[in-house]
UniProtKB/TrEMBL annotation:
<feature type="coiled-coil region">
    <location>
        <begin position="221"/>
        <end position="248"/>
    </location>
</feature>
<keyword id="KW-0175">Coiled coil</keyword>
<keyword id="KW-0732">Signal</keyword>
<dbReference type="InterPro" id="IPR010131">
    <property type="entry name" value="MdtP/NodT-like"/>
</dbReference>
<comment type="similarity">
    <text>Belongs to the outer membrane factor (OMF) (TC 1.B.17) family.</text>
</comment>
<keyword id="KW-0449">Lipoprotein</keyword>
<protein>
    <submittedName>
        <fullName>RND transporter</fullName>
    </submittedName>
</protein>
<dbReference type="GO" id="GO:0015562">
    <property type="term" value="F:efflux transmembrane transporter activity"/>
</dbReference>
<feature type="signal peptide">
    <location>
        <begin position="1"/>
        <end position="23"/>
    </location>
</feature>
<dbReference type="InterPro" id="IPR003423">
    <property type="entry name" value="OMP_efflux"/>
</dbReference>
<keyword id="KW-0564">Palmitate</keyword>
<keyword id="KW-1134">Transmembrane beta strand</keyword>
<keyword id="KW-0812">Transmembrane</keyword>
<keyword id="KW-0472">Membrane</keyword>
<dbReference type="Pfam" id="PF02321">
    <property type="entry name" value="OEP"/>
</dbReference>
<dbReference type="GO" id="GO:0005886">
    <property type="term" value="C:plasma membrane"/>
</dbReference>
């Protein structure tokens, strides 16, 4: 009994074969305990209640929610990534088919006449019908792991393609949110400029009245006209930039720009603080890191495929069926079968082709391993950049808001002093210009904070 078990175990080992691929070990990349830029910085509000996939809902904007849904349904970029994923999965299934025997069935019917002058014909011609029904089975013994490593590589490629799809989806979501944040920032800037034009128009009317009364000079009128027309020109510039941003969003959501409109909204998005999680989670959350690791695994498996080419390919064959020239086809005397051919093919000389292919496979692995390390390092850099941007932009917003308020008060005081005759209009123009610049800078910082929050989610591979 023990001898039989040993024989069975040996036969199983022979049939299953071995793997020529090197032992796989991803590069060891040191992961820090904490993000360096996150010290003393925590989220102001928890996000545990948010759906994991719909991180943009933290902005509480229904229009943004609708745009994200439309992009997921109609984006051509996402559709192309999905098609590539389907191709990769189909390729993996095609490789997996080589693990199983190939079975074929066929039938043949013919009527033949043999010459009477054939060898052994004795001058008598022969005419008969020939009917054959049968099947065949061919199976390659994967003794060296060529097929299994090919399957492993194809499956890893399919997994990498799935991660590419996840990365494309996250990038699309972030691109839509980023463009929408810029659009709302432009709306706020346009509203500021319209209010500024109204204020400048009133100031210009004041200088005209003072000029007509002989109190102010023509220089004051021209200065007031200059700042007024500059503000009007900036409205047109912002409108042009908004139109381009709106068209950008249309392309992202798969809509025709000519038929796409987003209503203006004066209330800008609030910039939430985003939690960062632990650095060790980054390697698990970033789809591009996962894709790079899977492609490295596939390249390692293909080294085994290249090594297996140095050993013979062993194939087994089996055929059987029924054949008759008369009477009932499916009778026992009409059956036939054959075991074989069993073939073993080994290339003895190929001019160094297999060695070259092995070197190529190893070089491809080294390239992808280096790419994996680069992807990880880039991911940490992007996270640190995003965390730093969120921190420092929050501080900048506080100072910029204070500066904008002070500049606005200075502008009001300068206009009052001019109205009372205590100063010339140059002081008013300077104060108005400084106030508008400070207010526009504040809006820019607020928009940058929204974009930084979106960038952090993208760099983390999704919400934490």
């Amino acid at each position: 009994m023990i001898a039989r078990r040993r024989i069975a175990a040996g036969a199983l080992a022979l049939l299953t074969g071995c793997s020529m691929a090197p032992a796989y070990q991803p590069p060891n990349i040191g992961v820090p305990q904490n993000f360096s830029e996150a010290e003393g910085w925590t989220a102001a509000q928890p996000m545990d209640g948010l759906p994991r996939g719909n991180w943009w809902e933290v902005f509480n904007d229904l229009i943004l929610n609708d745009l994200e849904a439309r992009s997921a349904a109609a984006s051509p970029t996402l559709a192309a990534a999905l098609a590539r994923y389907d191709q990769a999965r189909a390729a993996a299934r095609a490789e997996t088919a080589d693990l199983f025997p190939e079975i074929a069935a066929g039938a043949d019917a013919s009527r033949q006449r043999l010459s009477g002058n054939r060898v052994g014909g004795n001058g008598n011609a022969s005419t008969y019908d020939d009917f054959t029904v049968g099947g065949s089975l061919d199976y390659e013994l994967d003794l060296w792991g060529r097929i299994r490593n090919s399957v492993r590589a194809a499956r890893a490629d399919a997994q990498a393609s799935g991660e590419d799809l996840a990365s494309a989806r996250l990038s699309l979501q972030a691109a839509v949110a980023d463009a929408y944040a810029r659009l709302r920032g432009l709306d706020a800037e346009a509203e500021l400029l319209r209010a500024t034009v109204d204020a400048y128009d009133k100031a210009h009317a004041l200088t005209v009245r003072r000029h007509d009364g002989g109190i102010a000079s023509g220089i004051d009128v021209n200065r007031a006209r200059t700042v007024l027309d500059n503000a009007r020109a900036q409205i047109s510039a912002v409108a042009n930039e908004r139109a381009a941003t709106e068209h950008e969003i249309a392309a992202l959501v798969g809509a025709v720009a000519s038929d796409f409109r987003i209503e203006r909204q004066t209330q800008s998005l609030a910039a939430p603080l985003m939690p960062t999680g632990a650095p060790s989670q980054l390697l698990q959350r970033r789809p591009d890191i996962a894709a790079a690791e899977r492609r490295m695994f596939a390249a390692n498996a293909r080294i085994g495929v290249a090594k297996a080419a140095f050993f013979p390919t062993v194939t087994l064959g089996l055929a059987g069926g029924y054949e008759t020239t008369h009477g009932d086809l499916f009778k026992t005397p009409n059956s036939f079968w054959g075991l074989g051919p069993a073939s073993a093919i080994l290339s003895l000389f190929d001019g160094g082709r297999r060695k070259a292919q092995l070197r190529i496979s190893r070089a491809e692995y080294e390239e992808l391993a280096a790419g994996y390390r680069d992807t990880v390092l880039t991911a940490f850099r992007q996270v640190e950049d995003a965390i730093a941007a969120n921190r420092y932009l929050a501080d900048q917003a506080i100072s910029q808001e204070s500066a904008a308020n002070a500049a606005e008060r200075t502008s009001e005081l300068a206009l009052t002093r001019y109205r009372d005759g205590a100063s010339d209009y140059l002081e008013v123009v300077t104060a108005q210009t400084d106030a508008l610049s400070a207010q526009r800078a504040l809006l820019l910082v607020q928009t940058q904070r929204m974009r930084a929050a979106i960038s952090l989610v993208k760099s983390l591979g999704g919400p934490v």
